[in-house]
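## Example pair
The file below holds two records. Each record gives the amino-acid sequence first, followed by its structure token line.
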Amino acid sequence: MARELHLAGFLIASHVTHSHASWRHPGSETDYLGPDYYRRVAQTLERGKFDFLFFADALTTPVRYGNDIRVPLSSGTQFSAAIDPMLVAASLVNVTEKLGVAITKSTTYFHPYDVARVFATLDHLSRGRSGWNIVTSVSQAEAQNFGLDNHIDRDQRYERAHEFVEVALKLWGSWDRDALVQDKETGVFADPDKVHTIDHEGKYFRSRGPLTVPRSPQNRPVLIQAGASSVGKDFAARWAEAIFEIDPTPEGRRAYYDDVKSRASNFGRNPDDVKIFPSFVPFIGETESIAREKQAFHNELADPISGLITLSVHTDHDFSQYDLDAPIGEVSVPGSQGLFDLAQRLSDKDSLTLRDIGKLYAQGVLLPQFVGTPSQIADQIEEGFNGGEADGYIVSAAQAPGTFDDFVDLVVPELQRRGLFRTDYTGSTLRDHLGLGEASLTPIPRQVTIA
């Protein structure tokens, strides 16, 4: 069977996504507080036969840059305002039939029982289309919103996350598949011998169980991750079935692809069951020059300070203290090490200043921009897909929902003509779309085995 390209759409339940310029774009809708915007995007992606719609999330208003929320709020940087994507997702499964919906939930500021219950419920309501983007959160500000003084360090929060997922798997498996009887004649609702406590007593969590939610259609949500540091990539290689990646260079994407697939093999997993999704922002035009005009217009709307505010949030490091016209120096960041390493690599490679990095960050959090006619965009996707960079791609919008409309109407048909992408759904669940088998509820051993 020929290898098949996968596609997903990226959103935040907010006025911006990766692009900070998007909310200022004349073509963007700004009613992110109401249901119609999300419904339109989801139905557009389903019309394009996308695998899933992916919602990123954070648990704080940005305050790290200069310890001040006034500029982020005034300029509308990423997460200056956002609503709860889980409730948005619950509304979308009623207006779509096939599209998967993947939601971000933190393992640091929630409990496994709560998360397991929420995703089992979403999997039932969507009839098997749920996905969980597992994050450990990145910032001190998030900790302070949950009554803590400081965010726990990277190694500890990943250790905690491993146990979190292990507990969630136990809870999702606490109802056998055939435990729910509902025999009105005999009066037997459920077979008590097929519903189990989990009696988990660990370093970070205790949970008796069972879950209140019977076994869901997929057994559990599809597990998604975005590990970029070494410890993050190990976590992703152990658990994730889809991995979201940011790297603007083909060589960087190829190196990441090879690295994570190798790590998955070391955990005893089939690397084909780990789908890697780099993200990009497309600018599509009837001609290449029109597409480049669209790109230039968008990029001029991006403010470097807005970008540095978000870089400060992602790395949990205050970049307001540095010279904007100097290169990024060697600094230690407690937040996303992978994104900082990427910013530093670009700075060194292209002799970029901190201001330049801020501008790129505001244009799309260092995502590559694919620019050209529908055929040229399809060329770039096909080259990366066949060149060891990706199993699929996550499309992020320069303007919303217009970018998604253009991609579905113009690029998807070109990908279909080339035999790269499906012309219709062949299954009903997110696992079906991703070509995955039945979801296991048995934790993968933590010990990496190097061949």
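Second record, same layout:
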Amino acid sequence: MIDYVNRLGGDAPRTGVAPEGAAVAVWSLDTALESVGGHLVAGAAALLDPGERERAGRLLRPADRQRYLASHVALRVLLGGYLGLAPERVSLVREKCPCCGGPHGRPAVDGGGVHFSLSHSGDVAYLAFSGVPVGVDVEETPGVDAVADVLPLLHPAEVAELSALPEPARRPALARVWCRKEACLKAEGTGLARGLAEPYVGSTPVPAPVPGWTVRDLPAPTGYAAALAVRA
């Protein structure tokens, strides 16, 4: 499905053709970069649509705004490369929510052409592209308080698995679980609307099988976990 993660830097990327079928291309990004894919993050407003600019404007912390702008410049640069469009010409829409039918489902390219998913945490962003629905997630290793908050919300088997681990091992294991679940929920377009108990993804180094999806962990920097889900 995927053998490596491409690294996006300040220069324009060579994307090649858009992935077809269940093929996947995954890119990672340091969101602290001043230039992403040949475009200055400071000039991101010229590339983004009104909705993206409005969401960026609501972020009060400069670091949060930088991460959002860098990752969305990356998204548009990569989509433009796959679709043969300038980044600012890529039109993004929301699919219908599978839970309620509202216009807040998976983000998508208007008119199709390639499925995508974006996630960022800390100073790292991951972007995945495929010919079928795809979800990607990256997370920093959580602190002790976050483990205590999230643990009761998981599948009972995952709660048992994680509770049996010593505290130092529990935190990275929870990061694996969270990334796998988020990747599946993003790919489905449901987000957290149905809670975190399902699907069961397991906490061991190899993800548990998830009906309808191929789930695998991705290489990630120290202190992070990342995972990918692709429609089987």
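Notes on the second record: The CA atoms of residues 161 and 228 lie 21 Å apart. The chain has a mean pLDDT of 94.
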